[in-house]
C-alpha cells in the first residue's frame, strides 16, 4: 500500500486532470506524520534522481522544519547528502511574518544566511499573502526544472496546519486547488495535524486530496500510555480513483533508524487452522509425517504388552474380592468364572501351562504392601 | 538521573531544538528552568564550549531567579556581567512591550520582543562559531497574554527564536507552558487532552499546538496518589525527535519522581528512593 502511494506520487498527473494530492494526517496520539511524510519524500527524491518519476523537480515548502533539513541533511540515512538543483526549498520557516525585514541588521543576516544555500532556497517573507506564496512556489518550481516550461515538478507542503493558523479555510482551499491545477505541477503532498483543527476544516481539505493517509496508533490508549505509540502504528490509506471508486487499505508501520518499515496487517480470517498446524511443525532434515501406507502398517503392529488371548479383558487377581463380582452377586447373578472356578476350569484344559499360586496372609495386607513379609520371623 | 532521562550530556542544547516544559497548577515546573540554567551556564565539560542564555522573564523578576540559582551554585549576576547571560525583564514597568515606543512603531508586541531578543543574541556573539545560544521563556502563557490572546503570534515568536542564527548554529529554545490554562477558553484541562470540545468541534490550545512542534516534552505533574512528604511530583520525558539523544541509547518514555530541596532537586525512579 505504501508502494502504491509512492507510485502515485511518482507517476504524477494524467493529461487533462488535476495533479494527485496525497494528504498525511496525524494526531498527537502518534505524531508519526512527519516521519511518514519523510518516507514518501525520500522515495520521491530517489525516483526523481533516477529519472523514473514524471516530475523532474521538487519544491519543498518548509513551514515547520528548517530549510536545511531538506537540503543538507540526508533524510533517514539515504546517503545522498547534497541534493542537486532539482530540489528547491521555499523557506517559510525563518521569516514567515516579515519580522526580520524591518530590523536594521536583518539584511546582513539574510545575506549571510543564504550564502551556503542560496541556490536552493527562496525565502518567503509573508505567508499571510497566499498569492505571493503560490508565486514563490511556482518560481522555485521553474528553477528546479531549469526553466523548461513543459517539464513538471512535485510540491511538498510540510505542514498545512501552520498555514491554517494565518488563513481562513476558503483562502487555503483555493490556494491548494490552484496549486493542483497548475499545468506544471505533477503531484502535491501535504501534512496536517488533524487534532488542531475543526473537523469540518479537515473534511474540506480531505475533499481536495486524492489519497488520504490516516496515521493512527495501533491501539486506542489512555493519554498516559500513548507514548508507547511513538514508533509504531497503523496506516490507513483511502484512495479515490478517477471514476469515484474509493479504496481503503491498512498497513502497520514501524519507524526505525534506517527509515519506515511497512508490514501488512494480519487479519484473523487469514489465520486458518491448517496454516497454524503447518507452522507448528519444526523444520528438520527428516520427514516427521507419515504416509497413508506407513500409518496402516503401524496400526497392524501388535505390541508385546497387549493382551493377545481371546479378546477378553485381561484379569489380574490381586487377592481382593472383585468389585464387579460382588456387584453381580448382589444381583444374584453368577458370572461363571469367579476366581476359584477360573483356576479349576483352566487346569484340565491347559494342564501344561505353569501357574503361580499366591496365598495372602490376611485380607488386611495390601497387595503392594511395602511391609517386609519376613519381619515376624523369629530365627 | 535527569540527564540520563534526557539523554543530554549538559553541553549546550542542539541547534534549533525546542524543549517544552509543561506544568500545571498542582505542580509547578519552574524549577526545571533553574535546572537548565545551571547545566548550561556551568558546564561539566568546559572544552565543549559554553552556552549563552537569553532569558525572557515574564513571570518572576530577576532577583527571584538569581536567588534560586545562587543556592544551587550558579551565579547569575556574574554570568550576566560576563556576557554569558542576558535577562530581559518583561515584568518591569515601562518595559519594551508596554512602552510608548512600541505604539510608535505600530508593530505587534511579540515582534518587538523578537527584535529585542534578536539584538541580544547578536550582541552576545563573540565570533566563535561554535557558540550556542539558548533562549528560555518563562512562560509562554504570559506571552499569549501580551499578544492579546493570539496563540499564532506566540508560535510564530518561538519559531523565529529557533530560526535566529548565531554563528553557524541556530538558537535552541526552552519554554515553560501551563498545560491546564487556556486563555481563550478557560481551563481546558488535561482530562480531554488539552483541547476544548464545542460539540463536535475542537479548538486547539497553545500547549496542544506546542506539543506537535516540540522536540522534547517534559511534563511535570503532581503525584497521582496525592501529596507526599518526600516526593513532590513526577516528571515524564518524551522524546519526539532525536535531537537530544540518539535513538539507540534512550529508553523511549521515562517517568521519574522528584523532590525539591533548598539547594538541589533530586530525581529518582518511582518507588526507587526508599
UniProtKB/TrEMBL annotation, chain A:
<keyword id="KW-0539">Nucleus</keyword>
<dbReference type="GO" id="GO:0000049">
    <property type="term" value="F:tRNA binding"/>
</dbReference>
<feature type="compositionally biased region" description="Acidic residues">
    <location>
        <begin position="364"/>
        <end position="379"/>
    </location>
</feature>
<keyword id="KW-0963">Cytoplasm</keyword>
<dbReference type="InterPro" id="IPR027417">
    <property type="entry name" value="P-loop_NTPase"/>
</dbReference>
<keyword id="KW-0819">tRNA processing</keyword>
<dbReference type="GO" id="GO:0033588">
    <property type="term" value="C:elongator holoenzyme complex"/>
</dbReference>
<comment type="similarity">
    <text>Belongs to the ELP5 family.</text>
</comment>
<protein>
    <recommendedName>
        <fullName>Elongator complex protein 5</fullName>
    </recommendedName>
</protein>
<dbReference type="GO" id="GO:0005829">
    <property type="term" value="C:cytosol"/>
</dbReference>
<comment type="pathway">
    <text>tRNA modification; 5-methoxycarbonylmethyl-2-thiouridine-tRNA biosynthesis.</text>
</comment>
<dbReference type="Pfam" id="PF10483">
    <property type="entry name" value="Elong_Iki1"/>
</dbReference>
<feature type="region of interest" description="Disordered">
    <location>
        <begin position="353"/>
        <end position="379"/>
    </location>
</feature>
<dbReference type="GO" id="GO:0002098">
    <property type="term" value="P:tRNA wobble uridine modification"/>
</dbReference>
<dbReference type="GO" id="GO:0005634">
    <property type="term" value="C:nucleus"/>
</dbReference>
<dbReference type="InterPro" id="IPR019519">
    <property type="entry name" value="Elp5"/>
</dbReference>
Automatic annotation (TrEMBL), chain B:
<protein>
    <recommendedName>
        <fullName>Elongator complex protein 6</fullName>
    </recommendedName>
</protein>
<dbReference type="InterPro" id="IPR027417">
    <property type="entry name" value="P-loop_NTPase"/>
</dbReference>
<comment type="pathway">
    <text>tRNA modification; 5-methoxycarbonylmethyl-2-thiouridine-tRNA biosynthesis.</text>
</comment>
<dbReference type="InterPro" id="IPR018627">
    <property type="entry name" value="ELP6"/>
</dbReference>
<comment type="similarity">
    <text>Belongs to the ELP6 family.</text>
</comment>
<dbReference type="GO" id="GO:0002098">
    <property type="term" value="P:tRNA wobble uridine modification"/>
</dbReference>
<dbReference type="GO" id="GO:0033588">
    <property type="term" value="C:elongator holoenzyme complex"/>
</dbReference>
<dbReference type="Pfam" id="PF09807">
    <property type="entry name" value="ELP6"/>
</dbReference>
Amino acid at each position: 500500500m505504501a508502494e502504491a502511494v509512492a507510485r502515485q506520487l511518482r507517476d504524477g498527473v494524467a493529461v487533462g486532470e488535476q495533479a494527485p494530492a496525497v494528504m498525511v494526517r496525524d494526531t498527537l496520539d502518534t505524531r508519526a506524520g512527519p516521519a511518514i511524510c519523510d518516507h514518501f519524500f525520500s522515495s520521491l527524491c530517489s525516483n526523481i534522481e533516477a529519472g523514473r518519476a514524471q516530475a523532474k523537480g521538487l519544491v519543498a515548502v518548509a513551514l515547520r522544519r528548517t530549510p536545511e533539513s531538506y537540503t543538507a541533511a540526508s533524510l533517514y540515512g539515504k546517503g545522498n547528502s547534497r541534493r542537486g538543483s532539482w530540489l528547491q526549498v521555499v523557506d517559510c520557516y525563518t521569516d514567515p511574518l516579515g519580522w526580520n525585514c524591518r530590523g536594521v541588521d536583518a539584511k546582513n543576516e539574510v545575506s549571510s544566511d543564504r550564502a551556503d544555500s542560496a541556490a536552493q532556497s527562496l525565502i518567503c517573507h509573508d505567508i499571510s499573502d497566499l498569492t505571493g506564496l503560490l508565486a514563490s512556489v511556482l518560481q522555485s518550481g521553474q528553477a528546479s526544472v531549469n526553466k523548461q516550461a513543459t517539464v513538471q515538478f512535485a510540491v511538498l507542503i510540510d505542514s498545512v496546519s501552520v498555514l491554517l493558523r494565518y488563513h481562513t479555510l476558503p483562502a487555503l482551499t483555493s490556494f491548494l486547488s490552484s496549486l493542483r491545477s497548475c499545468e506544471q505541477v505533477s503531484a502535491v503532498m501535504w501534512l496536517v495535524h488533524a487534532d488542531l483543527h475543526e473537523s469540518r476544516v479537515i473534511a474540506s481539505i480531505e475533499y481536495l486530496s486524492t489519497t488520504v493517509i490516516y496515521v493512527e496508533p495501533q491501539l486506542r490508549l489512555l493519554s498516559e500510555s500513548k507514548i508507547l505509540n511513538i514508533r509504531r502504528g497503523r496506516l490507513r490509506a483511502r484512495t479515490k480513483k478517477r471514476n469515484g471508486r474509493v479504496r481503503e487499505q491498512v498497513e502497520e508501520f514501524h519507524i526505525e533508524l534506517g527509515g519506515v518499515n511497512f508490514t501488512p496487517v494480519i487479519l484473523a480470517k487469514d489465520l486458518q487452522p491448517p496454516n497454524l498446524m503447518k507452522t507448528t511443525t519444526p523444520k528438520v532434515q527428516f520427514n516427521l509425517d507419515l504416509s497413508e501406507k506407513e500409518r496402516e502398517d503401524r496400526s497392524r503392529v501388535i505390541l508385546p504388552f497387549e493382551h493377545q488371548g481371546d479378546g477378553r479383558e485381561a484379569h489380574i487377581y490381586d487377592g481382593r474380592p472383585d468389585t464387579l463380582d460382588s456387584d453381580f452377586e448382589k444381583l444374584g447373578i453368577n458370572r461363571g468364572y469367579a476366581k476359584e472356578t477360573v483356576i479349576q476350569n483352566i487346569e484340565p484344559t491347559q494342564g501344561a501351562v505353569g501357574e503361580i499360586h499366591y496365598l495372602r496372609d490376611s485380607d488386611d495386607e495390601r497387595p503392594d504392601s511395602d511391609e517386609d513379609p519376613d519381619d515376624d520371623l523369629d530365627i | 538521573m535527569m540527564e540520563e532521562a534526557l539523554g543530554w550530556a549538559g553541553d549546550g542544547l542542539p541547534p534549533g531544538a525546542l524543549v517544552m516544559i509543561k506544568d500545571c497548577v498542582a505542580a509547578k515546573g519552574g524549577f526545571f528552568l533553574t535546572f537548565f540554567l545551571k547545566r548550561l551556564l556551568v558546564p561539566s565539560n568546559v572544552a565543549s564550549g559554553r552556552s549563552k542564555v537569553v532569558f525572557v522573564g515574564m513571570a518572576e523578576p530577576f532577583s527571584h531567579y538569581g536567588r534560586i540559582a545562587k543556592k544551587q551554585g550558579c551565579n547569575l549576576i556574574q554570568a550576566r556581567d560576563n556576557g554569558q547571560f542576558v535577562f530581559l525583564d518583561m515584568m518591569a514597568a515601562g518595559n519594551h512591550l508596554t512602552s510608548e515606543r512600541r505604539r510608535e512603531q505600530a508593530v505587534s508586541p511579540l515582534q518587538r520582543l523578537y527584535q529585542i531578543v534578536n539584538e541580544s543574541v547578536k550582541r552576545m556573539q563573540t565570533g566563535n562559531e561554535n557558540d550556542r545560544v539558548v533562549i528560555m521563556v518563562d512562560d509562554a502563557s504570559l506571552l499569549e497574554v501580551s499578544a492579546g490572546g493570539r496563540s499564532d503570534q506566540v508560535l510564530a515568536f518561538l519559531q523565529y527564536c529557533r530560526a535566529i542564527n548565531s554563528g553557524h548554529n541556530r538558537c535552541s529554545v526552552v519554554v515553560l507552558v501551563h498545560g491546564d490554562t487556556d486563555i481563550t477558553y478557560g481551563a481546558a484541562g488535561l482530562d480531554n487532552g488539552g483541547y476544548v470540545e464545542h460539540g463536535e468541534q475542537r479548538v486547539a490550545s497553545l500547549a496542544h499546538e506546542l506539543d506537535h512542534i516540540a522536540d522534547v516534552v517534559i511534563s511535570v505533574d503532581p503525584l497521582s496518589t496525592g501529596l507526599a512528604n518526600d516526593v513532590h511530583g513526577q516528571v515524564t520525558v518524551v522524546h519526539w525527535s532525536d535531537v537530544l539523544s540518539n535513538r539507540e541509547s534512550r529508553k523511549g518514555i521515562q517517568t521519574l519522581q522528584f523532590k525539591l530541596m533548598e539547594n538541589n532537586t533530586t530525581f529518582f525512579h518511582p518507588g526507587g528512593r526508599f
